[in-house]
Design goal:
426 residues; Immunoglobulin-like; five-stranded mixed sheet; mainly beta; elongated
């Protein structure tokens, strides 16, 4: 009597093991559970509207995959080009048809994998490839500046070969223009006009950062018959954070490296009628020698303000001719009075020091001048004179098709100095 229950328990466990073994066999690919079985070739069960042989399909033509008859249904479709970009699509509820919902890329090679299921639930697979035709109208992108080391204020530029006007087309372009920095920072593109974009971070770039810029636009439909073209990638790095702030009221320039004051320099700025522009500027270039003439800024020859001078250690901050440079003829006024025609003048030794410590992309600001505020885009890189909230309205990805007037003066979120900017003199 005492042994009977023990015998029944052993027998029950034996049956349980056998049952588990049978289940494991079924999961291994029996006819009763074909989920893990190797897919059969579904070439005869699906078709697509792509070209035959070596032909190429128009990128304007949607891709369609259809199931033949009722022997199988389509379960999934994956279409990618050679760059790894997925083609969006939609599958009908009954699995009889899949069609693309986004334009094909031009001049691209596509691989399409179609998953099927027959009436018994067995999985099938068909892989197809095709090429799309080249689009005659391609949008080329040229990034700037040239690769190299720059200051933390250097914007990135993207020059387009054709005008892009519609908000939808601008959004397509902007999504494809990628800027990646290490360390990572928040940034955005701003549409300066129909074929020029600028990119800047919310604040300045970090010191000693690496910035990589590239485009994923190649072959992508932008608008109408316009498709994206190729673009040469760009890589730049930043050096120390170099900032020069000139106070036109006190006639001194304060120079900081990575936030620490390293020099104070007596200067002279623009006299009345030639007041130096307020605001943040970015070094555009440097020239050891420049012949400066008053006629270049509209001063008539022979007038009391006319000049024709050799100038050394010239650091350019605007395209219209504003420099930081050596002015040995005004040393007596430097630190005391503003007597220049708009440039920031200093002694030859100080100008040489400035010239050797600054590079393109470094920050040069002016406060407390009676001059106008530096405009953002039409006279150099005045991008930092626009607040971040206003900058973001120039991005097509923020729902702003038309942005506000970028020439309107305003204080920046990255103030160049503690003093407020004076209004423009009448």
């Amino acid at each position: 009597m005492s042994h009977a229950p023990r015998f029944r328990t052993v027998l029950s466990c034996t049956l349980l093991v056998a049952s588990l073994a049978a289940s494991a066999t079924a999961c291994a690919g029996s006819a009763a559970n074909p989920l893990s079985a190797k897919p059969y070739d579904a070439a005869d069960q699906v078709s697509f509207n792509g070209p035959s042989g070596t032909g190429k399909t128009s990128p304007d033509k949607p891709l369609e995959i259809t199931a033949r008859g009722s022997e199988a249904r389509i379960t999934d479709v994956t279409a990618t080009d050679a760059s790894g970009r997925y083609l969006a699509g939609e599958l009908s509820a009954d699995g009889s048809r899949w069609h693309s919902t986004a334009p094909l890329a031009a001049d691209a090679h596509y691989t399409v994998k179609v998953g099927t299921e027959d009436q018994d639930g067995s999985p099938g697979l068909r892989t197809m490839t095709f090429d799309t035709a080249t689009a005659p109208n391609r949008l080329q992108v040229t990034f700037g500046p040239e690769g190299g080391k720059y200051g933390v204020g250097q914007p990135i530029t993207a020059q387009l070969s054709s005008k892009v006007k519609s908000p939808a087309a601008r959004a397509i372009v902007e999504r494809a223009l990628r800027v990646e920095s290490s360390p990572s920072v928040d940034g955005a593109w701003y549409w300066v006009d129909d074929n020029l974009l600028h990119y800047r971070p919310k604040s300045y770039w970090p010191a000693h950062a690496t910035i990589n810029v590239h485009s994923n636009l190649d072959g992508i439909k932008v608008d109408g018959k316009l498709y994206g073209g190729t673009a040469k990638p760009l890589k730049i790095t930043t050096g120390d954070r170099m900032e020069a702030v000139t106070d036109a009221g006190s006639h001194y320039m304060t120079v900081k490296r990575n936030g620490n004051v390293i020099n104070t320099i007596p200067v002279t700025t623009g006299k009345p009628g030639f007041d130096t522009r307020n605001g943040v500027k970015v070094v555009l270039g440097q020239e050891y020698y420049v012949q400066m003439r008053g006629t270049s800024i509209g001063i008539a020859e022979g007038s009391s303000d006319s000049y024709d001078l050799p100038v050394y250690y010239a650091t350019r901050v605007t395209w219209s001719g504003e420099y930081v440079h050596a002015a040995p003829w005004s040393v007596g006024s430097q630190g005391y009075d503003n007597v220049s025609h708009g440039c920031t003048g200093m002694s030859t030794d100080n100008a040489a020091w400035f010239f050797n410590n600054f590079r393109p992309g470094d920050l040069v600001s002016v406060v407390n001048s009676y001059g106008e505020t530096m405009t953002p885009f039409d006279n150099g890189f005045g991008d930092w004179n626009m607040s971040w909230s206003k900058w973001r309205t120039g991005s097509a990805l923020n729902g702003a098709a038309q942005h506000t007037d970028p020439t309107a003066p305003e204080e920046t979120e990255d103030s160049a100095g503690s003093a407020r900017l004076r209004p423009t003199a009448a």
